[in-house]
């Protein structure tokens, strides 16, 4: 399966917000990340959630050449895949590898290209 998320990739960990809920403090993702996650919905395939071992290869085309942590981009992508029902969960029994993923640059068309393939043991 292959699909493209045609919006600039975002990480989840940058600019976290600390909010007080009653006596407890909670850490929430930034508004920029929440907006990104919401915008991802229209690009997600409408399928039954994948519940078998898969490899996810993601090519992140960034709008600038600034350094970014690949693992933080993966976290944001995997959370969106779970939220919109593409994968049942992002645990290591379902997403068994992220092989072939990398970050590239495309100022004119930032996006994430996602390739999901079944892993046979």
Describe the fold and architecture.
With about 120 residues, this protein is an alpha/beta fold. The protein has a single domain, classed as Holliday junction resolvase RusA (60s Ribosomal Protein L30, Chain: A, 2-Layer Sandwich), CATH 3.30.1330.70. The protein has 2 helices and 7 strands; from the N terminus they run E-E-E-H-E-H-E-E-E. The strands form 2 sheets. Strands 1, 4, 5, 6 and 7 form a 5-stranded mixed beta sheet that branches. The protein has a two-stranded antiparallel sheet with strand order 2-3. It starts with a strand and ends with a strand.
Question: Ends: how far apart?
Answer: 19 Å
- The CATH architecture term is 2-Layer Sandwich
CATH topology: 60s Ribosomal Protein L30, Chain: A
The helix-strand sequence is: EEEHEHEEE
């Amino acid at each position: 399966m292959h699909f493209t998320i045609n919006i600039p990739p975002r990480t989840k960990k940058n600019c976290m917000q600390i909010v007080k809920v009653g006596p407890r403090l909670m850490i929430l993702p930034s508004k920029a990340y929440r907006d990104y996650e919401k915008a991802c919905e229209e690009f997600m395939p409408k399928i039954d959630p994948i519940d078998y071992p898969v490899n996810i290869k993601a090519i992140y085309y960034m709008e600038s050449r600034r350094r970014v942590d690949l693992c933080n981009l993966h976290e944001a992508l995997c959370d969106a895949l779970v939220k919109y029902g593409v994968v049942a969960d992002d645990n290591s029994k379902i997403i068994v590898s992220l092989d072939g993923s990398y970050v590239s640059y495309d100022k004119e068309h930032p996006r994430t290209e996602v390739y999901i393939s079944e892993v046979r043991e």
